[in-house]
Design brief:
With 313 residues, the chain is mostly helical. It is 71% helix and 4% strand.
Length: 313
């Protein structure tokens, strides 16, 4: 009798667990699994924007022509390289700035709460507003940055930061070609999203025991040695996870570059190609194929990260 009651209780608990997980399963299936499957289906079909309202979407006329079009595009490799540069540089810069900001406000000082609030403001401001502000600041005719540079004599002439692809910089007699527009959007990316890293790193810094620093001070460790041997190892795990998150989100970023440069002047990334295929050429199939390429590249990165990087950490 006891065994029967035990089995009955186990069955009830199993059914209860199933019904409690069912809503989450439905939400994930509707908003994650189904869109991926649907996008894969569209990527294997010759679908235009006008076909989305017709019945041809359900015909079993699968083809690899969309992927052939994507991979044979002469701009594909350049867009992929630009995407990787933009993603890695932007993610690294945002995490680095977040760490610097967290270290600055970690100790007590007057007005620390106000400074913390100011550090968060770029992340909570609407992206359209901050992108317009940056466009106005960097404008070659009306921008305050060019005005200050020319007026102070630092610049011989205004620089079109968001519309010029290359800028020849003379440094100690050596001319260096700087990807100007791409560098500008990377700086915007780092500034815009460093508060996300700032909050997590600051929380981790506050959890480090003070006894570690006190013992290091007694042993005569310098501030740099305390940072290198105590602080950095303690926050290394957080930095790794933050870089992973920022890499994924930046790799899929569309609005920032679209609002700043429209993908011109060497800033065309793969997400801009997805938009151009869909609404420039009205080719939904090629747009879906490009989105699957994005998915594939991210999958490879995640495999490398969890197979080697995360295991080492």
């Amino acid at each position: 009798m006891t065994n029967s009651n035990h089995q009955s209780l186990s069955d009830r608990e199993a059914r209860l667990a199933f019904w409690m997980l069912a809503p989450a399963f439905v939400v994930v299936s509707a908003f994650v699994v189904f869109p991926v499957i649907w996008n894969l289906w569209l990527s294997l079909k010759p679908v235009s924007l006008a076909d989305l309202r017709g019945g041809s979407l359900w015909k079993f006329n699968l083809t690899l022509e969309n992927f052939h079009k994507v991979f044979s595009d002469p701009d594909f490799v350049a867009a992929l390289v630009t995407t990787l540069i933009y993603t890695i540089a932007g993610s690294t810069l945002s995490v680095f700035l977040g760490m610097i900001a967290a270290l600055l406000v970690h100790e007590e000082f007057p007005g620390r709460g106000l400074v913390r609030g100011l550090f968060i403001s770029p992340y909570i401001a609407p992206v359209v507003a901050v992108a317009f502000t940056w466009s106005f600041i960097l404008d070659p005719q009306l921008g305050v940055l060019n005005w200050v540079g020319v007026d102070s004599g630092l610049l011989a002439q205004p620089i079109p930061f968001l519309s010029q692809r290359w800028w020849n910089l003379d440094f100690m007699g050596v001319t260096v070609r700087v990807p100007l527009a791409l560098t500008s959007v990377v700086l915007f990316e780092g500034w815009r999203y460093f508060p996300f890293a700032f909050l997590f790193i600051l929380a981790r810094l506050q959890a480090i025991p003070d006894e570690l620093y006190q013992a290091a001070s007694v042993d005569g460790a310098s501030p740099f040695q305390r940072f290198w041997h105590i602080t950095l190892p303690q926050i290394a795990g957080v930095l790794s996870i933050l870089f992973l998150f920022r890499f994924i989100w930046t790799f899929n970023k569309f609005d920032d570059i679209f609002l700043l440069t429209r993908g011109q002047a060497g800033t065309e990334v793969l997400t801009i190609k997805v938009y151009d295929y869909a609404f420039g050429e009205f080719d939904i199939g090629a747009s879906s194929a490009m989105a699957m390429v994005l998915f594939g590249v991210l999958s490879v990165f995640l495999l490398i990260y969890f197979r080697w990087i995360a295991k080492e950490d």
